[in-house]
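FAQ: What does the model actually see?

It sees only this:
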Amino acid sequence: MVYLGFDDTDSRQGLCTTWLATEFVREFEDFDLIGYPRLVRLNPNVPWKTRGNGALHLRLGEGRGTPFVVGELGGRQIRAFPRGLPAMVDDAFESRVRHVLEGGCAFDDPLTHPGYAILDRRPSASFYWAAVRRIVTIEEALAAASGCGRTGGYKEGRGRIGALAAIAWRPRDRTYEVLAYRERPRWGTPRDVDEASVVEMDRSFPSTFHNYDYANRHVVLAPRSPCPVLCGIRGEDPEILPAALRALRTEPVDRWLLFETNQATDDHVSHGRSLVPRTSVDIKGTVVAPPRILAGGHVVVALRRGAEPVDCTTYEPSKELRRAVRSLVPGDRIRVVGSVRESPRTINVEKLAVLTLASADKPRALAVGWYEPAVSARRHLAKPLRRFSGAVTVRPGRPARTAAS
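And it is asked to produce this:
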């Protein structure tokens, strides 16, 4: 197969790398799409990311097996094949790739540095794990892809890192997302997505998630940025996602595409490592002091972990997670998953488990179990508790059935 990866094409002011995937599908109609298009999120702590730090990967070749529908573009269905044979590429193929990129990149944004990769074999999966868990350099990326094919870029060409990492991804865990796109004249205008239909869809399709924030009465599946995306529905079962999309009442959909993703997998979290800034960690410790309330409603709690305590911070938008942290007392033992901030040095909490309570003999507005932020405050890669096997989700003041591990 031909492995085509690309990244860093959008900006906070508009455009979208996933939308560009639909343009590549249109351009390479003379090739078959093999498997689902892949949307691969990388280290969420990268300081120069545009929005969700997502890279794209398409596999192209000569399809084999029974095709299945993965999208719609220009009034026709987009089909993919479960497997395929290699296809020949030449300089003209790369020229076509550059043509698509040059027509759909936010070149004016100083943070945007597009890059692409055209490979006939994939880099080691270890490069994906490096790119999703820490900061990697262009030099590391090119070394990982040595002998695999050709790469190119614009400006600093930093998008080559994501392009190669997306191709290197071999899923251990995966989810899916169907993304619907707006008609071009509507880009940058308020989206028309009926809130009641989102709630109805969420309740009718229980294998989907992150559609609606019931605590804050907020539609989550529609972005707020001026990008081409109308909405995105995430779920465990790809076969039902097109039906879930059709269940929504929205403005007209220009096109849609169904992606295989590493979202909601916790792939970005390192276990048992030191607290390196701009990485995400999973640690355990004992609360050493009452939580501190900062201006704006953020809450900081200090844990004893080794010789020095470490601060863990939950921010106001996390809502019930923040309320759980406010209920901690010295002696409580907890497990924290979050990202390491360099200055001030702290762990920004993504989710938390109360392992044991220091004062189990007294009434507590807290129970043993897992706590997570409001839906609208979750990161793309953060694994929701509903995807944890045997996890117990509790709210302050409600008893848990089992202890968190």
